[in-house]
């Protein structure tokens, strides 16, 4: 049986924390930033946890992440 492959897009977007949670970057911070307010862009900084309803999809995309 061949090894399962990790989705390359998922390994670039998600990091697994030691506690088993997964962190991700905020959306809406890539382009068309001139029309967004400074407050909005500031609040989109940093990382947040992936919601628990999406953890099954993350586990399928990253089979060796230990989720």
Automatic annotation (TrEMBL):
UniProt GO BP: translation
One Gene Ontology cellular component annotation held by this UniProt entry: cytosolic large ribosomal subunit
Positions of region (Disordered): 1-21
Listed name of the protein: Large ribosomal subunit protein bL35
PANTHER family in UniProt: 54S RIBOSOMAL PROTEIN BL35M (PTHR33343), LARGE RIBOSOMAL SUBUNIT PROTEIN BL35M (PTHR33343:SF1)
Gene Ontology terms for molecular function: structural constituent of ribosome
Family: Belongs to the bacterial ribosomal protein bL35 family.
Originating organism: Tepidimonas ignava
Keyword annotations: Ribonucleoprotein, Ribosomal protein
InterPro entries the UniProt entry points to: Ribosomal_bL35 (IPR001706), Ribosomal_bL35-like (IPR021137), Ribosomal_bL35_CS (IPR018265), Ribosomal_bL35_sf (IPR037229)
Pfam families tied to this protein: Ribosomal_L35p
Comp. bias intervals (Basic residues): 1-16
UniProt keyword Calcium, yes or no: no
